[in-house]
Amino acid sequence: MLYPVVEIFKSLEGEGTNAGMAAVFVRLGGCNLNCQFCDTDFFTCREMSISDIVAKCDDLRAPNIVLTGGEPTIHNLAPLMRAFSRAGYCIYIQTNGTLPLPDEPFKFVVVSPKPNTRLNSYTMWRANELKYLVGLSGWEDWIWEVESRPYAQRIAHKYVMPVAMGTKHSHPDDWCSRENTKLAIDFVKRNPRFRLAVQLHKYLNIR
Hints:
Distance between the termini: 28 Å
Number of domains: 1
CATH superfamily: Aldolase class I
CATH architecture: Alpha-Beta Barrel
Number of strands: 9
Order of helices and strands: EEEHEHEEHEHEHEH
Radius of gyration: 17 Å
Structural class: alpha/beta
């Protein structure tokens, strides 16, 4: 079985609960959404077999695999996950929450629900972390809409993250990012059950 792979690289997780964790990131191509603020090129990819993907991860030598995109759940992840499990990896995933996760177990599921999308209940009930984007149209109303749903009550880790808009590769120091950061900080002060997430890897200038 082949998967469209944008890149496989070793780095530190830059956001949320697992910030600072060493991992191999497997970025798969394609997405079911078209977010204008997205900072990721997920169209330039090459086909790779499961064995080649696992071998590349083995070469990079980290105990954790982060499946990301694009949107990884548009692909049949079950065979790839079984291969990673057999190789002894802990598997993490970053998803927009609109499609069902495979039944195989994840170590940690991060959902970043984009405004006005239809979230998949099966995926949301399995989420360990919610990461909301601050600065989009109607962002705060969207947070409270998601928070009103039963599955949100059981998710322990909740973050708000300022979004950089205007360019695909905006830096956290850009004006728009600074303004959205102020909004996110103010939101957390008013709602202390949430935490602020920043894109640490951009501040550190690492992948």
